[in-house]
Structures are given as structure tokens and as C-alpha cells.
Write a structure and sequence with these properties.
Chain A is of the alpha/beta class. Among the domains of chain A are: 247 residues, NAD(P)-binding Rossmann-like Domain (Rossmann fold), CATH 3.40.50; 34 residues. Chain A is built from 15 helices and 14 strands. In chain A, a hairpin with a 2-residue loop joins strand 6 and strand 7.
């Protein structure tokens, strides 16, 4: 069993989860994400140790071995040697650049995203075809491939009646960013691979994942997974929780009617495991929509407000100019029954879950850089070169700094991270 | 007016056609296709001079200047400098790797095709956005993006009613090869560019083009465009004409019911010109299906037979094992009215046109390498490494050599090209 992209937010808990279930897990990553953090000045609020330290701690605490393999999918010779050596029964492919704003910064980031994702995935398909043709490719796609059509979103395919004839075809896609476009290209390539080679594939169109705590990450601080909160890597819900925990207004892009599918990270573990345990047939390209609930940004912001209020704090919501090009009020109804049919029992997003997310942020508030909290996001129309290099309104940054300082002081802990503006 | 990919089969007549109409044409190419010929041992049956010789001959005969600019779209700095210097009102983008079998040879060719096409197109989109935002992108796509659905193929978009709601979405695509997949990725990227940047775009999903003679190519042998007949670069119809002209059996892949759209190269000139003269609006991603007639392989083979018979020759048809993965008997009905509505007056494929194609081949029969005529095509399931490096059945090659020798002898002309097997 190979988990590609093990150093990422989902990859590390996924590797542990499969290892706990008794699979021999080989953890593969090129550590690109750590490089992008260095490049962009971002970081995980929860400190994460090296891959070597992680697998060693896991072995020490559970007796289970995860083999760590430093490998870039774009290095096809190394990938082919890897597949020929391990011949895995399944590969969980999470090894892609996964940020929409990152892909929208400029030409360079758009091209890097598409080349990295499309070439890595093609290399993997050929390596499977040549060295492990029975291997089940479990590939992480995204619900963002579909966009926001005015009709119900089905799971991968749509039966269309047109001029008196009928066919079942890949669901038409209107993706949201150059990143989402790379995933559409992957899906098309994989579908083709199943048709010409008889490859087994499950394409998981995942919603937005939240939460950091799985049975395994909670065993030891060294086993935690990353928590992103900046405007490039952090999801809207993460940003809301971190803003609220820091005593800052929650910033909602535009009207806030933007609706998407969401799921708990524990359900991601369960869904991918279900896909592995019920493999696609040879020649089958199975598509599951992997999320459990739909929310609009406004609904999420309101939930965070209520959770904060129950804890005795008032939070405000600011609607800011939307840097993205997207509908802010739209129909959205996406099907997601296939994984439930396989046995998924969802963890729903309730106030207790949100409360634990905010508590986790509070534990690490001494790591918070208020500049990153206030950095405006990449603009879909004009790119991100400028905003990426400059800071937001200085008075906002000062207010954020004061707020975070007060919170850190109330916990009587020193600030550990140097502010970027110093 | 920039024509990107001017050194190709369509690009060179297109540049002359627009120059004749009075446009200031800048001809751009990276000469990649000549390199791929050297790499694979293929060549144009009709000899083509260098780009410098072509534009000089054109100037000498017509007094019109085509500026020749050696440039690779994957070199984004050079491309940006070019767009900033010329700020064209329109770019005709033909500068892609365009062979399905080439893309199916192996991993390397699949990756090269997708990276070359997707990155070149992305670079062009960003260069337009930054340096010529009003420029009309006229992009050559392919009918092969759609595949062969069991419902009518519309022009780019499909209005879908589903569960009582309606939306008009990009037509679902099931492309035929890694090459066709690259064009689908381009279409998706361009559609996105029109949505976020207000780019003007016309995506021309072109059928199979035939014919070599336009008003301009017939002015002088130096102005001819290439004629491909091998199994990597030659279309089925070209191969049929060349096999027939050489007195060999016509080889049809599989049952021969494979149906596609076709058009005369003169109609390609007209369609692209119509797209330029009626530009897309800002923010519009217009898709035209650019072909005039549908034929199955069997229909084409039968037409070639009839044309040969009228000239006093018997030709036979061999159905050979299909190296591709495709339906050999299927529904196919693709709409193509948008360009007719703009004023296209099609040249249809009749026996006189086929006769002139076969006559052109006969003129250049002394250039024919029988080995290339007999080389089996790339296999979609197993790739092409092996067939690419070896020759087909030796007795077939010998029979082909004898047949071509006899034809050359009957014309009392020496064979100009050394056989590969010598």
C-alpha cells in the first residue's frame, strides 16, 4: 500500500490510519509543500516534525512500521523503480499541488501547478500500467472540478437524453481555478487509462476537509498533521476559526452565499479506506463525491459566531471584496451517496466539533503571525504578484497584532514565532 | 495578425491566405515538427523548403511580406516579448503537437505532448492577458475531443435538463488519445480565461483536413505545404491515397465503421478567416465545429477505389487489426452550422478532389519510402516503442518496394529517396 503525498495535511493521518489497520504502508513524498512554505513565508500553525521523526514516533508508539520514501512523481525513473520494487495493491495518490490561490498567483504558479499535477499523475499511470497493472489507483480529485452548475451534480457521470437519444457521459465541468483545471485534466487522463489499459481507478472528488484530530494524530504532538490558516493554503473554515480564536473579525469573501461540500478529516480516512477495501474493477473508472454536508460561507461564519458566543466571546463578520471570480449566490446540490452505500458513517460538523477546532487554535496561538492572518488573498483577475509581496492595510495588521498579543499574554506564554514585519 | 505554428501543414497556407487578404502576418514556429521528423524517420512526401525560403518566395511572387519569427511558445519570456512588441489583433494558434499516434508511443511522448500543448497554450493566454488583452485568440481544437457519444454532438456546449432544472454546460468529452486529451485541457483553460479575464476566444474543433492545394500553394513548388503519409503523421485518407497511388492494398483499421468529420484545407482557410473577421466578444468563449462532411473509413476507402477504377486500376482493401482503442461501429452526428451561418461555402469531397489528391501523390512517388508505407501504427494498448523501432512483415515491405519501383520506373524517373532498410 503506497500513500503518495504523505507529508501533506491528509497524507500523514492517512498513512497512520492504514498502518493501524494492518496495511504495510510505504509513505511517499517529495516534500514540495515544505518548500512552498519557505518560498511563500507560510507555515503550519501546529508544528510538524520531519517525516523521519514522524515514522519513528509512530513505530515507537504503535510498533507499526511505515516505510518512508523520498520521491518526486515527476521523476519518472525513480517512480518506475519504486513501482517495480513494491508492486503495491493500491496507491492513494494525494501528491499534488492543492491550493487554488497558489495556482492563481501568476503564470509561473499556474504552469507549475498544472505541470506538477498532470505530469506526476501521467507518470504514475504509466508506472502502474507497466509495473503493477492490477494496482488500484485511488486518486484525490476535488468537488471544485464541477463548479456550480444550475443542475444537480452527480457522481462523475451524467445520463443525458438529447434529441431522443441517450448516453451516460462524464459530468460536464466548469472548474474554479488553474488548480481545479489540473484536477479535471487528471480525471480525463485517468478515465482514458481505464479505457485503453484496463486500469482500476477510483477518482474521489473531495469537498473541503476540516479538522486535525484523528485517533492517530492525538497520540502524540509529533503525530499531529498540519494546520494552515493563511490565505493561500488555509481553507475558509480554518481561517474563520483562527480569526475567531485570535479575537479578530471573520472575513467572508463577497456575499457569502458560496456553497460547497465539506467533510471531517476522519471521514476522509474512512472514505479512502472504503475505496481501498472495495476496489474498482479492471477497466473501471469509478467516481465518488467525497463529502458529507453542504454549507455556505455565511452558514459557517454564523456557526463559528455561535460557538464563540457560547464560550462568552463576541465575534463580528466582515464581508470583504471577493478576490475570486465565482458566483456568490447560486444553486448547489451535489449527490454523495456512493460512499454512504459502501458504509460511510459521517461525522457531522456540529458546534462541539467547531469548538474543538477553535480550542486547538488557541493552544497554538503563540505561533500565530498576525501579518499572515491579514494578508489579502490572491486576486483571480489580476493575479497575486503584488499582494503576495506586500502586506495588507498596516492598521489592520497592528490591530491583529494587538489582539493576538493580548491572547498570548492571557495564556502567559511567550510568542514563539518572529513576526514577518520585524 | 500572428499565425502560431506556421511551419505546419495548415499553418503555412494559412499565413499565405491571410497575407493575400491584406493582413500583416507574423509567422511564428519553433520548427519542432521538422525535429520530430528527424527523430522518427518520417518526412513530407512533398518536399518543403525552409521558412526563410518560403517567405522569400512569397514576397517575390506576390509582393506581400510575411514576417518570420522563430519562437517556441514554451519559452514564455520570448513569447511575452513578442506579444508586447506586436500586440496582434488576433492570434491563430496552431502551434501544437497534433498527432494522436505520436502521443501514444510511450510515456515520454504522452508527457511531451501534454506539456508542450498545455504549457504553450497557458503561456499564450497569459501573454495575451498581460500584453494584448483585446487580442482574439483563435485556437485550433479537434473534433476528437468529443469522442463518439451516442447522442448528437453540439458545438461546444450542451443545454441539459436534469431533475427539473436546466443549465448550458461545456459538452462532455471522451477524447481518443493523450493528444486529444491535451486539447481538452486547452479548451478548459481557455474557457476559464474568458471567464476570469474577459479574454476573447474562438475554439475551433476541427475535423480531419485533407488536400494540399490552395490558391497560394499552387503558385510555386516552394509554396507547397507538407503531405504526410506515414502511420504517425498521415491521416487515414492520406494513407489510403498514397497506398492506392503506389498500387498497394488500402489498409483499414478494424471494421472501418469509424466515422469522423472531414473538411477540405481550403475550407480550413475560410473557417479561420471567418472566425477572425467575426471576432468573439470580450469574455466570450465561442466554440465552432469546423468540418463540412462526415465519412466512415469504409466510405473513404470505397471512394478511393472508385476513383482508381475510373482511371483503369484495380485496388483492394485489407481490414487489418485495429491498433487503436475505439468503437468501430457507432452513432455519430455532429452539428456544424455555426461557420456556415457566418458564410462558409464548403468544398465537398468528391471524386474529382480525390483524383487530384492521388495525382499529387503520383507526381511525388519517387519520394515514397515503402517501409514507411508498411510500418504498423502505434498500438493504443501497448504503446509504440517496439513497432516504432522495427519494420513490419518483411515480405510486405518487399511487395511494397516492388510496387513503388514499378511505378517509379513507369514514370522514367530515378528514385530520389534512399530506402530506410538499405
Amino acid at each position: 500500500m503506497a500513500v503518495l503525498g504523505t507529508d501533506g495535511y491528509i497524507g500523514w493521518p492517512m498513512a497512520m490510519h492504514l498502518s493501524r489497520l494492518g496495511y504495510d504502508v510505504v509513505a511517499v513524498d517529495n516534500l514540495a509543500r515544505r518548500g512552498w512554505d519557505v518560498e511563500g513565508g507560510t507555515y503550519s500553525l501546529v508544528p510538524i516534525p520531519t517525516m523521519e521523526q514522524r515514522v519513528e514516533r509512530w513505530r515507537e508508539l504503535t510498533g507499526n512500521t511505515i516505510i518512508w520514501h523520498h520521491l518526486d512523481l515527476c521523476d519518472h525513473k525513480a517512480l518506475e523503480a519504486f513501482m517495480a520494487e513494491f508492486v503495491p495493491e493500491a496507491v492513494v495518490h494525494l501528491a499534488e499541488q492543492r491550493s487554488a490561490p497558489f495556482s492563481m498567483i501568476d503564470r509561473d504558479h499556474a504552469v507549475r501547478t498544472q505541470v506538477n499535477n498532470i505530469v506526476g499523475n501521467l507518470n504514475l499511470m504509466f508506472a502502474i500500467h507497466e509495473h503493477a497493472p492490477d494496482c488500484h489507483l485511488v486518486k484525490l480529485g476535488t468537488m471544485g472540478e464541477y463548479g456550480c452548475p444550475n443542475i444537480d451534480i452527480e457522481e462523475g457521470y451524467l445520463t443525458i437524453e438529447h434529441n431522443g437519444r441517450t448516453d451516460t457521459l462524464p459530468y460536464p465541468k466548469v472548474p474554479h481555478s488553474f488548480y481545479h483545471l489540473s484536477k479535471v485534466a487528471d480525471s480525463q487522463n485517468i478515465h482514458f487509462g481505464t479505457r485503453i489499459w484496463g486500469m482500476r481507478a477510483t477518482d474521489l472528488n473531495q469537498g473541503v476537509v476540516y479538522g486535525n484530530q484523528t485517533e492517530d494524530t492525538m497520540l502524540h504532538p509529533d503525530l499531529m498533521t498540519r494546520l494552515d490558516f493563511d490565505s493561500i493554503w488555509g481553507t475558509a473554515l480554518n481561517r474563520f476559526c483562527v480569526q475567531a480564536a485570535a479575537g479578530l473579525p471573520i472575513t467572508v469573501y463577497g456575499q457569502g452565499g458560496q456553497t460547497r461540500g465539506y467533510l471531517d478529516i476522519r471521514d476522509t480516512m474512512a472514505c479512502i479506506t472504503l475505496a481501498i477495501e472495495h476496489p474498482a474493477d479492471r477497466g473501471e473508472c469509478r467516481v465518488f463525491n467525497q463529502f458529507t454536508e453542504q454549507f455556505s460561507l455565511n452558514e459557517l461564519a454564523d456557526m463559528v459566531l455561535r460557538v464563540r458566543k457560547a464560550r462568552g466571546w463576541e465575534t463580528t463578520i466582515d464581508h470583504v471584496a471577493n478576490p475570486r471570480v465565482e458566483a456568490e449566490s447560486h444553486y448547489y446540490n451535489a449527490k454523495h451517496s456512493a460512499l454512504v452505500d459502501l458504509g460511510l458513517e459521517p461525522h457531522l460538523l456540529d458546534e462541539s466539533m467547531l469548538g474543538s477546532m477553535i480550542e486547538l487554535v488557541e493552544q497554538y496561538v503563540h505561533q500565530l503571525d498576525p501579518v499572515l492572518l491579514q494578508q489579502p488573498s490572491v486576486n483571480w483577475r489580476t493575479g497575486g504578484n503584488e499582494v503576495w509581496d506586500t502586506y495588507a492595510n498596516q492598521s489592520q495588521v497592528e490591530a491583529a497584532t494587538d489582539s493576538v498579543d493580548a491572547l498570548v499574554a492571557s495564556q502567559a506564554r511567550p510568542r514563539e514565532r518572529q513576526l514577518q514585519q520585524d
